[in-house]
Design goal:
This protein is mostly helical. The protein has 12 helices and no strands. The chain has one domain. Helix content is about 80%, strand content about 0%. About 45% of the residues are buried.
């Protein structure tokens, strides 16, 4: 594992994980364009752990409140807005688990090309712009049906270039959520998705005969975590004022550049 490459990719992972621009695409492109070697399962597990830590720390108070509301709902049968919101988040988190597990090898083998990334970056960038442009003035409640729809949309993020946050924010906007609430939903349902991805990679790692570079992995975890936390703060602070157009412009520019390089 090259320490410089690993730390650069950890920074890229942290910056792009929660912005609607696709972290998987940005991790694949250095290898495709610059010839950087794959950093391996241990690195993937480390940077996922960093991103997971960032979102859990940022939303720690909300997670505590939602957990308490769920326990109160179960123990005392006292439903609340928080408990309903928590249950809907759980529903939204379910589809990605089986789909991600059973399609991971197909995605690795078939869908990591630059052409795929270029078209998904552009296509889902346009979808994000349309959803942001057509959003209503009044936010609609998050219902079980809407939650499942957001969860199904999250499955598309397995395709590099789509962006997990991008596609879930897009669907949430289409279903009547405000800009900030759409991002909040996206970040909260990222927790089980990222945890599941890290768990699968860790399981695969256990069956791989390697000797990890623990110092580089630890540093990569910290770099990914700090940069991811910073990007969560930035996105939630600007999205109501600027919307998602800056990310759409970036996606169109990146996708266009990739197509120009290909053709």
């Amino acid at each position: 594992m090259d320490p410089v490459h690993a730390l650069a990719l950890a920074l890229i992972q942290g910056i792009t994980e929660f912005l609607p621009i696709s972290s998987s695409a940005h991790l694949i492109l250095p290898g495709k364009l610059l010839g950087w070697p794959d950093q391996g399962l241990a690195f993937d597990t480390a940077v996922h752990l960093g991103s997971l830590t960032a979102v859990v720390v940022y939303f720690r108070h909300e997670l505590h409140r939602l957990s308490a509301a769920v326990l109160l709902h179960i123990q005392s049968r006292q439903p609340s807005a928080d408990s309903h919101f928590a249950f809907n988040l759980m529903l939204a988190s379910l589809p990605i688990i089986p789909v991600g597990y059973f399609t991971r090898f197909m995605v690795e083998a078939e869908l990591r090309g630059i052409e795929v990334i270029a078209f998904t970056t552009i296509g889902f960038g346009i979808a994000l712009w349309l959803a942001d442009y057509m959003r209503g003035d009044t936010a609609k409640p998050l219902t079980p049906a809407r939650s499942i729809a957001i969860g199904l949309a999250q499955c598309l993020a397995l395709i590099p270039g789509t962006s997990r946050s991008g596609v879930t924010i897009t669907m949430a906007l289409l279903l009547g959520q405000s800009r900030e609430h759409a991002a909040r939903i996206s970040f909260l349902i990222a927790i089980p998705a990222i945890a599941g991805a890290a768990a699968i990679k860790f399981w695969d790692l256990l069956h791989t005969p390697i000797t990890p570079d623990w110092f580089t992995l630890g540093t990569a975890t910290v770099v990914a975590g700090l940069s991811a936390y910073f990007c969560i703060v930035i996105l939630l602070s600007i999205v109501n004022k600027m919307g998602y157009l800056p990310f759409v412009i970036y996606r169109l520019g990146l996708g266009g550049l990739l197509l120009w390089m290909i053709y």
